[in-house]
Amino acid sequence: MAERLLKFTSVDPAMPGKRPATERTGDFAEIYGEFIQAKATEQASRCSQCGVPFCQSGCPLQNNIPDWLKLAAEGRMQEAYELSSATNAMPEICGRICPQDRLCEGACVIEQSGHGAVTIGAVERHITETAWAEDWVDLIRPVREREDSIGIIGAGPAGLAAADVLRGYGYQVTVYDRYDRAGGLLVYGIPGFKLEKHVVARRVERLERSGVVFKLGFEVGRDASFDELRARHAAVLVATGVYKARELPVPGAGGPGVVKALDYLTASNRKSFGDTVPDFESGALNAEGRHVVVIGGGDTAMDCVRTAVRQGAASVTCLYRRDRANMPGSAREVANAEDEGVQFAWLSAPRAIYSDASGATGVRVARMRLGEPDGSGRQAPEEIPGADHDLPASLVIMALGFDPEDIPAMFGCPDRPVRRDGTIATVGSVQVKGMPGVFAAGDIVRGASLVVWGVKDGQDAGQAIHSWLRQQQSAARIAAE
Ligand SMILES: Cc1cc2nc3c(=O)[nH]c(=O)nc-3n(C[C@H](O)[C@H](O)[C@H](O)COP(=O)(O)OP(=O)(O)OC[C@H]3O[C@@H](n4cnc5c(N)ncnc54)[C@H](O)[C@@H]3O)c2cc1C
Ligand code: SF4
């Protein structure tokens, strides 16, 4: 089999075909195509099958990457799928949207040796898309049904991954979400050009057909108190994500024509579903024909600039206070945005936002330079005095990150344990401090993070809930004897 592997010196790294910018900016469909089978096999054959697989350590799920690459290189796709899905509840989603350059591919040894990483994410996606096409993705069929019911609050990646594990053990699982569709940020945050919505819907449908019950449009704190839910279920998982947008502390930031990134992206995603969105129809959340300035340098900012291009903005500029090398967003997404016509104003920070009765009119921009490293080790941006200038803007989108909402207030239970930053305090990774039978996972524990970490935490929470219930049952049996 060795001749089918170690081809990194003779085969160049390749991604599936990317649609040209002129074509892809006309719609919200994904920009990358699919590998054909021969290409996936060839790319998998570049793997050097390291004794110590750094790619596996670089993956939050510790996926058995070299093993499924080997199976894919040998054309044994069904076995590759069985192995890759054993550690990941949604491999085709991670394959599409993980920032691989910072995770598995960034750690790949042949990347370090200058040959270019194996395109692990694209092969992972191909393996699972093949499995869906060939009908290898089976429903969850528990060996035995269990009476205990589990309530999961939040149908994002963390909640869905936990539901997958728990249903596998035979528990009766109900997932509550305040949105009208399941998927969390996979459906209403991340735009279709990175992740088409049918890919998420397919996963949700599989869970539904496997017996998981979804109660959508159900907000915990409004439609039931947390304590009511706790009484209804043997265990409860909180996987509610982080949704409080960080504010911009400059004059005019609360004025007309200044909108929050998630409101803007949610409206756009809803339009992709064909929903009626009054704030889009009124123009408040529609970039068409407008001069758009997006403030921020993370992945959310990249999603906003690229959405604005697709909505037909007159111009799109991203303001970021550090330089390109220090941008938190994925380098691949920045390059895609540039190809699509986005202007980047590096080392630029907003000082004020101007508006009149018609809406925003411009942004006063301070020029920055990078000073000494701060506590985080990154060079701190500092203003260059007297170098301000004005930028025309009729729509300003703030993409400065997210913090947790006030969970104790939202759930109507002021004594619930949260850390100073508002995330839920856990013992170990998932058990909520001082609340037996209550678990938490995903962004609400970690702070704004990544889908793959949500999947990992959700899967871990599923295992932890199962272990906790078994311990409870053993203790009850011993007490009864
Ligand atoms: C615009 C954007 C783009 C991103 N792009 C990427 C990317 O490319 N790659 C990547 O890896 N990560 C990306 N992320 C991060 C990723 O989406 C999150 O880390 C991940 O979705 C967190 O999963 P979660 O399950 O913890 O929370 P979420 O996905 O936020 O899901 C939480 C769910 O809980 C529900 N909920 C909240 N409160 C209640 C309540 N009281 N009652 C009922 N339901 C409730 C919400 O409606 C939501 O559906 C992006 C994030 C954003 C905002
Ligand atoms: S889950 Fe993400 S980090 Fe892990 S192998 Fe897949 S693409 Fe890489």
Task: Give a verbal description of the structure.
The chain is an alpha/beta fold and 481 residues long. The chain has 3 domains: 2-133, Fumarate Reductase Iron-sulfur Protein, Chain B, domain 2; 149-243 and 404-480, FAD/NAD(P)-binding domain (3-Layer(bba) Sandwich), CATH 3.50.50.60; 246-402, FAD/NAD(P)-binding domain (3-Layer(bba) Sandwich). The protein is 37% helix and 17% strand. It has 20 helices and 18 strands. It has helices at residues 21-24, 37-44, 54-58, 65-73, 77-86, 91-97, 104-107, 109-112, 120-133, 157-168, 185-188, 197-209, 226-232, 261-272, 278-281, 299-310, 331-339, 407-410, 443-446, 451-480; strands spanning 149-153, 172-177, 213-216, 235-238, 244-245, 258-260, 291-295, 315-319, 343-345, 348-356, 359-373, 379-383, 389-392, 395-398, 402-403, 426-427, 431-432, 438-440. A 5-stranded parallel sheet has the order 3-2-1-4-18, sandwiched between helices. It has a 5-stranded parallel sheet with strand order 6-14-7-8-9. Strands 10, 11, 12 and 13 form a 4-stranded antiparallel sheet that branches. Strand 8, helix 17 and strand 9 (343-345) form a beta-alpha-beta unit. Helix 4 (65-73) packs antiparallel against helix 5 (77-86). The protein is globular, with a radius of gyration of 24 Å. The relative contact order is 0.12. The site of flavin-adenine dinucleotide has 37 residues, from helix 10, strand 2, helix 14, helix 16 and helix 20.
CATH topology group of the largest domain: FAD/NAD(P)-binding domain
Can you identify the CATH superfamily of the largest domain? Answer: FAD/NAD(P)-binding domain
In percent, how helical is the residue content? 25-40%
Reading off the top of the CATH hierarchy, the class of the largest domain is best stated as: Alpha Beta
